[in-house]
Structure formats: structure tokens, C-alpha cells
Write a structure and sequence with these properties.
Layout lengths: L4 H55 L5 H13 L8 E5 L5 E4 L12 H8 L4 E7 L5 E10 L5 E10 L1 H51 L14 H50 L3 H33 L6 E4 L1 H11 L1 H6 L3 E5 L7 E4 H17 L6 E8 L3 E8 L29 H11 L3 E7 L3 E9 L1 H5 L8 H15 L1
Helix pairs in contact: 1-4, 4-5, 5-6, 6-10, 7-9, 9-10
């Protein structure tokens, strides 16, 4: 589990940091325990030595080495704590002449504490080290001087440190054991935590790989409603969206293929007929079909090119100050004959005047043509298409409605998406509304669709007037129009 990836990084970082903290803490506590223990024993020995010296100074009088030896001998022989520590007396030459144990002292044993006591101003010395026997011990020495300051003897307390060191070792062992237990708990809890992350992540990775390979039907089971659960929901939603997009793309390819095949077949058929020779009436009819189908192909290619520009963010506007009513008039006029031929009524409610707008003439005309064309395609013979326009509080609103088949409620939110076709039986690429919506958005406007199945569809195109744009903060989101206004203002200023 801890071989690589997140687990390894967690092991190195978290466990490593915690381990370092535990090592530092245990080392510090061990040194503190050792120091406290040693200091306590030192204070105990020093207290005993000072107690003896105080007793000597207050209880008896001694001025010679022999008097000192006699008095100290009696004290040492009656010493009751000989099981806990050893007390010994030294003469003025530094030789041990009596101990509380009664054993002959090791005269070869060095006594650094005695040497230190001789050199120090207070007559005290301390030593911690190993005896010649190998036993670790602590020694405290106090020198005794007469009234003139001459050395007459010394007392030395000696205690074994073996028991203290064992106790310190037990404490250190307990600290290490506690640290190991903490590390074990941390490792187990961390392993559980990492597993709760790594396993779902691996599932996410596997599912994402399947999605990348085109399996958009894969779904991940959400175990918990946490951040990973939210990620699972997001990936599942993405898979659903990609699946829908893939289906729309396939439908689009199929639709475009059909849209291309039909006019090409007609052109090829009539071209072969004309090549074989035909009477003037047949030739004229054939040439008319070839021209219409060629125009149809040209329109489809332009639509695909616009969609490509939209996808790549390369759709640009040639901005000018224009009369939107004039462009709407021309778009309606283009479909007058077609509506009559298809036995449909194209009703245009003409407006006397509309305020000017900033925009691209060709692009806006393209939007109007696309919407009116859709209205005609989805309206049965005998139906009506109505086109109207008005000004509304700084907006020019163009309303195009029809009495066609309408759009089912479940399809309405998706009709402006790329590749989407609510009715697969009607010719078209499925990208016209997506392109039209993007063009309107680039002009700072909106394209709204309202429809009821079996009743008809209405489309409202809202474009901001020049006056509104010149005083609207949203102008900063329309770089091409903003640039045009700035350049125009600069020319007027110059």
C-alpha cells in the first residue's frame, strides 16, 4: 500500500515528521529525567555531608587531625544508612582511614572529587564516574580545616548509581514504548485514512481512463458524501455530459452527411442528365435545381465554418453603427417567395423606426435568417410565421414566432447546445441556433426561446441600443464594440 504515490508521500512526510518529534521529545525527556535524578542524588549527598559538618562544628571542638579522626570514627561507626550509601573519612594526607562498611578501601581508586574539594574555595567536590570495579558511582567530598585554615581531614559520601541508572533506563524504555505505541496508532489510523482516499482515487483514475477511452456509460459508486464523494458526482456528471455530447456529435455527423449527400445526389443526377442531352425546358429545370442545391451546400459549409470559429474563439465582428430595422427587412424579404411556395404565411409587423445598434451587419442578418429559416422548416403548410420588433428601455427586441410543431419541454433547455436537434426528421445540422446564440452574445444581447409542443415556438432576440452600450458597464465585456466606440470617440475628438 505504501509503495508509491500518495501513500509514500504520506509515509515520508507525516510519519517522518511525527517520528522526528517523538525522537526529540523522548531524548529531551530522557535527559531531563537523568538530570533530575542525578541532581536529586547530588543534593541528598551534599545535604548529608553538610549535616555532618554542621554537627561537627556545633557539637565538639577539634583542632588536630587526631581529634578529628576520633570524632568522625564514632559517627561513622554509628551510621545507620550504610545500605543506601557509603561514608568514609580521610586524613590530612588524603588516605581513607575508616568507612562505614568496614571493608578495606581501594587505595588505588582515584578520587577526583577530593582533588576538586582541595582546590575549591568552599571545600566541596563532586564526581560521577566508574569505580575500579566497573560500578558507576557518585561521590561528594567535604574537606575540614582548623581555625587557621589548615587541612585536618575530609569526609566523603559515595553512592552507587546502578539502581538509579536502571530506573532511568526503565523510564526511557517506557517513553520509547509509548512513542512506539503512538507511532503504531498513527500508522494504523493513517493507513485507514489513506486507504479511504487511495482506493476511491484509484477507482476514479480507472473510471476516468475508461471515459478517456470513450466508455461514457461508466459510473462510479459514491461511498461517502465528502469531498471525494463530490468529485465522484462531478465525474459521473461529466461522463453523462460527455456521453450526451458524443451522441449529439454522432447525430450531427449523421445529419451533416445526409445534408451533404442529398444536394450532391441531386447535382450529380441533373449534371448527368444534362450531359446526356435534354430539351430546353428540362435543362432549365435542371440548372435551377443545381443552383439551388449548390447554394444549399454553400450555406451548410458557411455554417460549419462559423461553428469552427465559435469553437476556437475566432469569431470576430466587423462593428459599425447600423439600422437594425433595415437588416430585419432584408431578412424577411429573402423568405417571402419561399413562404408563398410552401403555402405558409409570413406576416411581418413593420415598425416605423428603431434606435441604432452597434454590431456586425452580416452576422446579425445571419441570425435573423437562421431563426426565420427554422420557423419555416418546423411550420406545416397553412401555418403562420410572425416577425415583429420594438424598443424596450434601451433594448431593441426582435420577436419571431411560428405556429409549428413546437419543442417538447424536456428538449427546450438543450436547443441552443451544439449538435443538438430536437426533431431528427427535419433537415439541418443542429448548430445553427448555437452559432446564432453566440453571435447575439458577442453583441451584448440575449436569445431567448419559448415553445410549447403542438402550439408553436417564439424566439426573442434582444440587442442593446447604442445609447445603452455607451453608458453600460458591460461594454468592457465586448472588446470589439468597445474598441469601435473608443476609435469613433477619438476621431470625433480630433
Amino acid at each position: 500500500m505504501f509503495a508509491k504515490g500518495v501513500s509514500r508521500r504520506w509515509l515520508v512526510n507525516t510519519i517522518g515528521v511525527v517520528l522526528m518529534i517523538l525522537v526529540i521529545s523522548i531524548t529531551t525527556l530522557s535527559l531531563m529525567v537523568q538530570s533530575s535524578t542525578y541532581n536529586g542524588m547530588e543534593l541528598a549527598l551534599a545535604g548529608r555531608a553538610d549535616e555532618l559538618l554542621n554537627w561537627l562544628s556545633t557539637s565538639v571542638q577539634y583542632n588536630t587531625s587526631s581529634e578529628f579522626a576520633g570524632i568522625v570514627r564514632d559517627y561513622i561507626e554509628d551510621f545507620r544508612d550504610k545500605n543506601q550509601m557509603e561514608i568514609m573519612a580521610l586524613d590530612q594526607n588524603g588516605q581513607v582511614f575508616i568507612t562505614c562498611t568496614g571493608f578495606e578501601p581501594d587505595h588505588d581508586q582515584e578520587m577526583p572529587d577530593y582533588e576538586e574539594a582541595l582546590r575549591s574555595d568552599d571545600g566541596a567536590g563532586k564526581w560521577v564516574g566508574r569505580l575500579n570495579t566497573g560500578e558507576k558511582a557518585m561521590a561528594i567530598t567535604r574537606v575540614v580545616r582548623d581555625d587557621s585554615g589548615a587541612l585536618i581531614g575530609s569526609v566523603r559520601y559515595l553512592v552507587s548509581m546502578e539502581m538509579a541508572d536502571r530506573q532511568i533506563s526503565l523510564i526511557i524504555f517506557a517513553l520509547v514504548a509509548a512513542g512506539a505505541f503512538i507511532m503504531l496508532l498513527l500508522t494504523l489510523s493513517g493507513a485507514y485514512f489513506i486507504r479511504s482516499i487511495v482506493v476511491p482515487v484509484r477507482q476514479l483514475s480507472q473510471s476516468a481512463r475508461q471515459i478517456a477511452q470513450g466508455d461514457f456509460g461508466v459510473r462510479i459508486e459514491k461511498a461517502k458524501d465528502d469531498e471525494i464523494g463530490q468529485l465522484v458526482d462531478a465525474i459521473n456528471d461529466m461522463a453523462g455530459e460527455l456521453g450526451a455530447a458524443e451522441q449529439m456529435k454522432n447525430d450531427f455527423i449523421s445529419s451533416v452527411s445526409h445534408e451533404l449527400r442529398t444536394p450532391l445526389t441531386a447535382i450529380k443526377g441533373w449534371a448527368e442528365t444534362l450531359q446526356e442531352g435534354a430539351d430546353p425546358d428540362t435543362a432549365e429545370k435542371g440548372m435551377g435545381v443545381i443552383i439551388r442545391e449548390s447554394e444549399r451546400l454553400s450555406g451548410l459549409v458557411e455554417e460549419l465554418l462559423d461553428f469552427s470559429r465559435l469553437q476556437n474563439g475566432r469569431m470576430r465582428l466587423l462593428v459599425s453603427r447600423l439600422d437594425i430595422l433595415s437588416e430585419l427587412d432584408q431578412a424577411v424579404y429573402l423568405f417571402t417567395d419561399r413562404a408563398r411556395t410552401e403555402h405558409k404565411q409570413l406576416h411581418y409587423e413593420e415598425t416605423t423606426a428603431l434606435p441604432p445598434v452597434y454590431g456586425d451587419v452580416d452576422r446579425l442578418r445571419q441570425v435573423f435568417i437562421n431563426i426565420i429559416d427554422n420557423a419555416l422548416k418546423y411550420t406545416s403548410p397553412g401555418g403562420t410565421i410572425t416577425v415583429s420588433s420594438r424598443e424596450d428601455d434601451g433594448w431593441v427586441r426582435v420577436h419571431i414566432s411560428d405556429t409549428g410543431c413546437g419543442i417538447p419541454a424536456e428538449h427546450l433547455p438543450n436547443v441552443k447546445k451544439k449538435f443538438y436537434k430536437a426533431n431528427q426528421l427535419v433537415r439541418g445540422s443542429g448548430i445553427g441556433l448555437a452559432v446564432a446564440d453566440e453571435i447575439v452574445r458577442l453583441h451584448g444581447g440575449t436569445l431567448e426561446i419559448d415553445s410549447q409542443e403542438g402550439v408553436g415556438t417564439s424566439v426573442t432576440i434582444s440587442l442593446p441600443t447604442c445609447a445603452r452600450l455607451e453608458n453600460d458597464p458591460q461594454l468592457s465585456d465586448l472588446p470589439e464594440i468597445s474598441k469601435f466606440i473608443q476609435e469613433r470617440n477619438q476621431k470625433e475628438h480630433d
